[in-house]
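Re: beginner question about structure tokens

> Can someone show what the tokenized structure looks like for a real chain? I only ever see the sequence side.

Sure, here's an example I had lying around. Input first:
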Amino acid sequence: MRRYFDPNVPNDTIKEEMPGLMARTARFEPFKTRETLCRRGFLPENIRRYLYRPLDLRWVYWEPETKLLDEKRTEYFEQMVEGNLFLFTTGRTRKANIEPPLITDSLNDLNCMDSGTRGFPLYTTDQAHIFQQSSQPGLPRPNLTETANELVRSLRVDEKILFYHVFAVTHSLAYQDENVAALRLDWPRIPIPGDRKRLQSSASLGHKVADLLLPDKPVPGVTTGQLRPELRHLAIPTKIDHSPIEEPADTKVTAGWGFRGQKNAVMCGKGKLLPHSPKDSSSLDLYLNDNLFFSNIPAPVYAMTIGGYPVLKKWLSYREYKVLGRALRTEELTYFSQMVRRLQALLLLSADLDANYRSVASAPQLSLPQE
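And the corresponding structure tokens:
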């Protein structure tokens, strides 16, 4: 981006090095745009983490002027203050199953979830706040109605407890099955127990789920420290001859995981999978090429979808050598293994999430104090 903003670097050089930034479209005139932005200058503070697809965290340069960024969504960018979190849901899923919300603490793409995302922040700044006016402009405020504020105050908890409780409940398969009609009508009903300890316990479980779905969040036993025994031997990068892996000679993704489709969109391919054991198909070996594979991926993890996307296949589709244009780096191999462990740890919480939902749903529900 510094080279793009350097007026001493000719347009032809930028076009050769970064063709996407100099490609003319119906809404984007690349040469006039660059001339305008070079006069103003680079904004390095606008390099931000960016969730492109579930667990696929990248970087983006957010540009407030021109059409360098196709849809900048200024009102959304203003809400990305330190400590804020968003629950994102799909606009209308094309899949049969109902997908639970995705949590993010970074900017995310409109298509981070299938059919487009709709975001609900934990906090809002005054520039876009809906429910409350602040005497301290610019400071974040809880994104709650007055009724919800009364609820929080009556239980002597803060807004994060309510936020994580909602996340825990909506990630229960039992909740999704029992409320499928309401969810299809975009009308989720969340049980809120009147018991403060029960609500806090639910929020604590929701916090665990959130940590697993935030790609930058270290999770002890899953991504850092001594790994949990049930996760330790999952998704190990392995060469056929068990020799050391050399980058980039061994790390090109060429097994057909992705390809360019209509309008240059990246599509998932079939890839290459083999049973980890000839007599057991519950675990798989996932091949990046003829010589390198990830050993021992649980079949349910491989099948997992988030936001309508098959998580592992979607991540790999963008890393196919013909799409990415380079081999994977060692840290990317490590990240893929971590991603498998995150997803397996999430699956292992399923029974706890269902038990939590049944507990809060069967408990006496919170009634707001009468005036």
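Each token stands for a local structural state, so reading them left to right follows the chain. The first helix runs from residue 11 to 17.
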